[in-house]
Structure to design on (314 residues):
């Protein structure tokens, strides 16, 4: 996960916006005529050079965020199989499901004759697929810069760099619109965003933490703990975040956890519980990050509205 520089919410917000602008400029710089792309040489996130003789026509994606990115860049019809969790857009539902990070089905992947297989760094099948002669592209997306770099890489791979630029600009525009909607009274409040009930949290250096910073929010988890740190449950209680965000089942369970009933955010309704489909969108680092920012803004607007109603009732 790595150690990240501690940055204030305001500084972090400006830094994320700057990264998005620079990435968009980079994407513009790599736009080439499709016909000029006979072969594609790509450097993936393990540092390996992956040489493709032409933009791939048969793609296997073993991570939902990569599946979504391929589709957002106009390559959905080139997918021939995905991991079991890929479910957006709806058109991927009928594709062969090939397991997950820990149990990808190698024989079925090989049988699909993919031109390239897209995997995360934590996938256990990379070396095996390499040994079988398949082209494997390893892509990591922990933060906003990673997401934009992966869009650039996939745009080059597909021969659709202009689409990558369009998606990047769309993410930035949606982020700006969402940030403008966040109630002034909530800006700077410390958010605990839970990604797993263990509990794992989205730290300031994660793509979720960076989105919260773009919205003017602070993070209850300091950046030096890493992007997605596993926390001692007592740490969360001691931290007393101003706002708690999680998927709805985990949020419902929080008051039952030892000591968590003392969290003031839970007592006073300063919380956001997300349905499964919404939560999936929020925790996938891909082309829908702008939409995710809008959903977080919706939650914050609802919190402020409830607070106003409660204040008038007193």
């Amino acid at each position: 996960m790595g150690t990240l520089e501690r940055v204030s919410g305001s500084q972090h917000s400006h830094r994320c916006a700057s990264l998005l602008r620079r990435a968009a400029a980079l994407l513009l710089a790599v736009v080439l005529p499709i016909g000029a792309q006979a072969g594609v040489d790509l450097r993936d996130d393990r540092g390996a050079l992956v040489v493709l003789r032409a933009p791939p026509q048969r793609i296997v994606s073993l991570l939902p965020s990569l599946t979504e990115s391929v589709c957002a860049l106009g390559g959905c019809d080139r997918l021939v199989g995905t991991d079991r969790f890929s479910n957006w857009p709806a058109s991927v539902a009928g594709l062969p499901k090939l397991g997950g990070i820990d149990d990808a089905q190698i024989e079925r992947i090989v049988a699909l004759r993919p031109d390239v297989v897209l995997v995360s760094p934590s996938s256990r099948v990379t070396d095996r697929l390499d040994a079988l002669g398949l082209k494997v592209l390893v892509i990591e997306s922990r933060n906003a810069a990673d997401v934009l770099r992966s869009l650039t890489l996939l745009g080059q791979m597909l021969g659709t760099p202009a689409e990558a630029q369009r998606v990047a600009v769309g993410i930035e525009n949606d982020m700006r619109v969402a940030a403008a909607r966040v109630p002034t009274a909530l800006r700077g409040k410390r958010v605990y965003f839970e990604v797993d009930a263990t509990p794992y949290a989205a730290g300031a250096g994660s793509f979720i933490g960076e989105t919260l910073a773009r919205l003017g929010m602070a993070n209850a988890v300091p950046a030096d703990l890493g992007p997605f740190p596993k926390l001692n449950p007592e740490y969360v209680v001691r931290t007393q975040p101003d706002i708690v965000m999680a998927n709805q089942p985990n949020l419902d369970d929080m008051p039952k956890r030892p000591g968590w009933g003392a969290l003031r955010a839970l007592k006073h309704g300063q919380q956001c519980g997300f349905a499964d489909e919404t939560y999936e969108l929020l925790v996938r680092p891909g082309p829908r990050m702008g939409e995710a920012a809008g959903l977080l803004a919706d939650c914050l607007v609802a919190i402020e509205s409830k607070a106003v109603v409660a204040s008038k009732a007193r």
